[in-house]
Design brief:
heterodimer; A: alpha+beta; Ubiquitin-like (UB roll); DNA polymerase, domain 1; 5-stranded mixed sheet; 5 strands; 35% helix; 17% strand; B: alpha+beta; Uridine Diphospho-n-acetylenolpyruvylglucosamine Reductase, domain 2; Uridine Diphospho-n-acetylenolpyruvylglucosamine Reductase, domain 3; Enolase-like, domain 1; 4-stranded antiparallel sheet; 14 strands; 25% strand; globular; binds flavin-adenine dinucleotide; binds FE2/S2 (inorganic) cluster; Carbon-monoxide dehydrogenase medium subunit (chain B); Diverse_Substr_Oxidored (chain B)
Chain lengths: 160, 287
């Protein structure tokens, strides 16, 4: 069974025709062409597929594409504020070497964005709690923590 | 992924009718965090899913001092976890909610889905049973209310008949003289299913325990009540010696199995340790 789904992705209205058993993750990557969101495990364990739906982070692998009808989805492609400008988190991840193979990075960036939106000055414990659904097999997490704390400071400085 | 058809129910009556008309292999679909995983891992054969998220009235949360806390079938674990009332009055539920999966999973997973999956290791079940929660069940002919402690008939099995739908859960009010705790034990802190989960809810009157319920997760075919241990504790001051013998009794009452997460012996030992610790933590409310 196929269905037409109307929703917004990174602020832009979109329409896609999808099989009703397709995950939002597969639909974003294959129908919409946004391959920034990664598929690690496809069962909710790794967080590589994290997107923000109506303001809340979810695993795109554990949501059906048809459920996106009428909703607003943010992916890593929508993180940068302009074509040649990076989000402070993206910039900090590059400077701190917080990304090695990069497979976990899109999911972690979306989770970190949500964390800083809700809590501009997170403690290490807040970051650990916020990222507990995101697995990274390369970095050992230390550089990810450094990058998030540095981005938090820069965003704070930019506000004041 | 195996193919299945997707249906969006408009009302409870509609969902119930779809469940009976579409035949076997038709399942209600709430957050999908169990169902989609079971489909992908080929643990369950699914031909149709009936999405209940468009049914009105299932997303409410209410609290009053006589009835207690009631939440609908669509209320997510994450929403309840963040609710100040839950933090303040139900630290046991809050501990269970905050320990379930990840933030992403909790934003989708419903508490009702967690109980309907009826896993012996489900984290929300022990504290809800210890608190004496009730399940509201809809069928096309009537509504019934079942104590959660009588809802489960085996691993993955419940009293729900074909076409029945859980509409919500009511947790009795949290009295000022109540103490509550839920302790989850796993191999790591985050993203881990329970190896053992112990919930304790108790009432103290003038230094004496007037009531106590102990619920044990992941150590039996369903979540168990340690009723003999409870009986040993009622009417006592919960002194260390009595708590110790009751914890030993709880170890006898559980029926754990060995699996990839732990051996039966280890689980039994942990029931002893965690029962004592959970009682202590529940009493900290009065310290
Ligand atoms: C990565 C990951 C980690 C997890 N970690 C934990 C954990 O630490 N602890 C834990 O306890 N659980 C854990 N879970 C499982 C937990 O997410 C689920 O049990 C969840 O709570 C089920 O709710 P749902 O809304 O997603 O249900 P669904 O998957 O939609 O449904 C689950 C079952 O309940 C039935 N159902 C749903 N709603 C109703 C209703 N209203 N009436 C009757 N039947 C209904 C469905 O038909 C299905 O059989 C984890 C899951 C994932 C993917
Ligand atoms: S791909 Fe979705 S959590 Fe791993
Ligand atoms: S950078 Fe490789 S998994 Fe995180």
């Amino acid at each position: 069974m196929k269905k037409i789904v109307e929703f917004t992705v990174n602020g832009e209205p979109r329409e896609m025709t999808v099989d009703t058993c397709r995950s939002l993750l597969d639909a974003l990557r294959e129908e919409v062409g946004l391959t920034g969101t990664k598929k690690g495990c496809d069962v909710g364990d790794c967080g590589a597929c994290t997107v923000i739906v109506d303001g809340e982070p979810v695993n795109a692998c554990l949501m059906l594409a048809v459920e996106a009808e009428g909703r607003s989805v943010q992916t890593v492609e929508g993180l940068q504020p302009g074509v040649d400008r990076l989000h402070p988190l993206q910039d900090a991840f590059m400077r701190h070497g917080a990304s090695q193979c990069g497979f976990c990075t899109p999911g972690i960036l979306m989770m970190a964005k949500k964390l800083l939106d809700d809590n501009p000055n997170p403690t290490d414990e807040d970051i650990r709690f916020g990222l507990s659904g995101n697995i990274c097999r390369c970095t050992g997490y230390t550089k990810i923590f450094d990058a998030i704390k540095s981005a938090a400071r820069e965003m704070e400085a930019a506000r004041s | 992924m195996r193919r299945f058809d997707y249906h969006r129910a408009e009302t409870l009556e509609h969902a119930s009718r779809l469940l009976t008309e579409l035949g076997d292999d038709t399942f209600l679909f709430a957050g999908g965090t169990d169902l989609l995983v079971e489909i992908r891992e080929r643990l369950r054969r699914v031909r149709n899913v009936v999405d209940i998220k468009a049914i009105p009235g299932l997303s409410d949360i209410t609290y009053d001092e006589t009835r207690g806390l009631t939440f609908g079938a669509l209320v997510t674990v994450g929403r309840l976890e963040r609710l100040p009332l839950v933090r303040q009055r139900y630290p046991n539920l809050r501990a269970a909610f905050a320990s379930l999966g990840s933030i992403q999973v909790r934003n989708r997973a419903t508490v009702v889905g967690n109980i309907c999956r009826a896993s012996p290791s489900a984290d929300t079940i022990p504290p809800l049973i210890a608190d004496g929660a009730f399940v509201h069940i809809y069928s096309r002919t009537d509504m019934r209310v079942v104590p959660l402690s009588e809802f489960f008939t085996g691993p993955g099995r419940t009293v729900l008949a074909k076409g029945e739908i859980v509409t919500g859960i009511t947790v009795p009010p949290a009295a000022d003289n109540s103490g509550k705790a839920y302790l989850k034990h796993g191999r790591r802190k985050a993203m881990e299913l329970s190896t053992v989960g112990v919930a304790v809810s108790l009432l103290m009157e003038e230094g004496v325990c007037s009531d106590i319920r102990i619920a044990l997760g992941a150590v039996g075919a369903t979540v168990l009540r340690a009723s003999q241990a409870e009986a040993m504790l009622r009417g006592t001051a919960l002194d260390a010696a009595t708590v110790k013998s009751a914890a030993d009794k709880a170890m006898e009452e559980c029926t754990p199995i060995s699996n990839v997460r732990a051996s039966a012996d280890y689980r039994r030992d942990m029931v002893g340790v965690l029962t004592g610790r959970a009682i202590k933590q529940a009493l900290e409310t009065f310290a």
